[in-house]
Specification:
Arg_repress_DNA-bd (chains A, B); four-stranded antiparallel sheet; 149 residues; repressor (chains A, B); 6 strands; Arc Repressor Mutant, subunit A; 6 helices; Gyrase A, domain 2; alpha+beta; homodimer; DNA-binding; 48% helix; 2 domains
DNA sequence: GGATAAAGTGTATAAATATACTGAAGAATT
DNA sequence: AATTCTTCAGTATATTTATACACTTTATCC
């Protein structure tokens, strides 16, 4: 079992089962004949950005990344690496320039990412304008977007 | 300092500062002359449902609840307790019945909650119809919604 | 008010998680 | 092919987080 396969399985398991702690993952994998240690799971959690969240019912449960979907994240990363030109903020606005023709796709992904800082998002051919909730949010957004490159 | 005030402050801090571990909270509060121990913070994290999430840059950071805003959650809980009548799923649909006149408010809150399982949501006077992404999601949604009662 | 219950917190510690260190296995380089 | 580099994962352990227990404070009831 390759690491990548395991990652996919973990993402599947975390959605289907209630995983309260990393050892639960170890056990679930063990049931499937896959041997890993808690240490490996801890590293997997980090890479997949899974979080142990307090649940409504008082317990804990591992969850998918809070804010941004893994797939969206992957796509954003790819597109940013491919088509990103520049980024800047002014007041509550974040302006992203891309290679011609890529802004619309980028805007769609940014929408899909559902950043809590974001208020709205419009795009032209090579420009995405993100309107955030305030100045601080704009800066935070800029950082987040840059981090994909 | 009352627990509730502290909770508000924690929610503020977690948005403004990078909090990597619970001790960071203890320190931040200490700076403001508020004395608490890590144990209390752990309990606060649980009640506020804050999560320690792996960050893009490789570190960790405490975050607000992943999927659902604290206020929204509170309101949903209140409204569900007040106005909920019944819930059922069929295929990828979840149908919620409420006391007359409450469905619109409930739908608005469900929208605000931005469940990842949800595709869309419409409402009448006493009925909310949630369209989810697939059958499994519908069941998961049902559970989540019931859990507010 | 006094009694009783409920909520909140610290201390100490158990439980869970992250990581330094190490070695194995494969890929890349010469 | 030998050497070096990189990735991966286990072991052992450090770090972090959760909680049992005890005590204090606050609310509730009579």
């Amino acid at each position: 079992m390759k690491k990548n396969e395991r990652h996919h399985l973990l993402r599947k398991l975390v959605q289907e089962d209630v995983i309260k702690k990393q050892e639960d993952f170890v056990d679930k994998l063990h049931e499937r004949g896959i041997e890993v240690t808690q240490a490996t799971i801890s590293r997997d959690m980090k890479e997949l950005q899974l979080v142990k969240a307090p649940a409504q019912n008082g317990g804990y449960r591992y969850n998918l990344p809070p804010e941004i979907d893994y797939d969206v994240s992957q796509k954003l990363s790819r597109l940013m690496k491919d088509a990103f030109v520049s980024i800047d903020t002014q007041r509550e606005f974040v302006l992203i320039r891309t290679l011609p023709g890529n802004a619309f796709a980028l805007a769609a992904l940014i929408e899909a990412a559902r950043y809590k800082e974001m208020f709205g998002c419009i795009s032209g051919d090579d420009t995405v304008l993100v309107i955030s909730r305030d100045e601080k949010s704009a800066q935070r957004l800029q950082k987040k977007i840059i981090s994909f490159i």
